[in-house]
Design a protein that fits this description.
The protein has two domains: about 5-80, Glutaredoxin, CATH 3.40.30; about 90-195, Up-down Bundle (Glutathione S-transferase Yfyf (Class Pi), Chain A, domain 2). Helix content is about 50%, strand content about 10%. The chain has helices at about 10-25, 45, 65-75, 90-100, 110-120, 125-145, 160-175, 185-195, 195-200, and strands spanning about 5, 30, 55-60, 60-65. A four-stranded mixed β-sheet has the order 2-1-3-4, covered by helices on one side. Helix 1 (about 10-25) links the parallel strand 1 (about 5) and strand 2. It is globular. Bound molecules: glutathione (GSH). Glutathione (GSH) binds near residues 35, 53, 66 and 68.
């Protein structure tokens, strides 16, 4: 099965999908779109993802968009290992955690949002400060969401969607200079990055990595 991931090495949302693919044991080919050069807005790509955002995944003769929808599709197509708990209530809690990051933290640091703020006259320090406030408040809330949990990962000793979404957000927080020193979240991050699938999905491990 050929799986093509439209990605950018630094994209948190693409990172989530890479982790899910690696956990499911699916190999993928990367097609890189340089966000700094606005490659995501090229007509050929917009015909695949009308939102002009990465990621998009080509699989089973279709193009899928939105990282969480893509991961849910992978979960249904390749059920093992499962990225969601068996219990419906637990599944809802894992999804709530993932959405707390994907809907309530991540979007404010999207490149296009930062560009809009710059266009409206905010300087870099003000933009970074605003991003840090959202990230720190959001991660504090995430930490509270799992305060009564134990185990190596967010919801116990099994990796779930929650971990997949958390890890890129921790890295993103550091990039902005936000406080990410929430002990439980940092311990989960360390445990996750020691796992081969998370290691394979890291930005620095991607063919288009350009840390310079
Ligand atoms: N909710 C979307 C978010 C996708 C997204 O924000 N992608 C970013 C990179 S992490 C992007 O393509 N940004 C380009 C831009 O803002 O123009 C998802 O989860 O797939």
């Amino acid at each position: 099965m050929t799986v093509i991931l439209h990605s950018y090495w630094r994209s948190s949302a693409a990172w989530r999908v890479r982790t899910a693919l690696a956990l499911k044991g699916l190999a993928w080919e990367t097609v890189s779109h340089d966000l700094r050069a606005h490659a995501q807005s090229a007509p050929a790509y917009v015909s695949r993802n009308p939102q002009a955002l990465v990621p998009a995944l080509e699989m089973d003769g279709a193009v899928l968009t939105q990282s969480l929808a893509i991961i849910e599709y992978l979960e249904e197509r390749v059920p093992h290992p499962s990225l969601l708990p068996a219990d419906p209530l637990e599944r809802a809690r894992v999804r709530a955690f993932a959405l707390a990051v994907a809907c309530d933290i991540h979007p404010v640091q999207n490149l296009r949002v930062l560009r809009m703020l710059r266009k409206r006259g905010l300087d870099q320090a003000a933009i970074d400060g605003w991003a840090c406030e959202v990230i720190e408040g959001g991660l504090a809330a995430c930490s509270r969401l799992i305060a009564d949990r134990t185990g190596a990962f967010c919801f116990g000793d099994a990796i779930t969607l929650a971990d997949i979404v958390l890890i890129p957000q921790m890295a993103n927080g550091r990039r902005f200079g936000a406080r990410v020193d929430f002990p439980r979240l940092e311990a989960i991050e360390a445990a996750a990055l020691a796992h081969p699938a998370f290691a394979a999905a890291r930005p620095e491990a991607q063919p288009d990595a350009d840390p310079a």
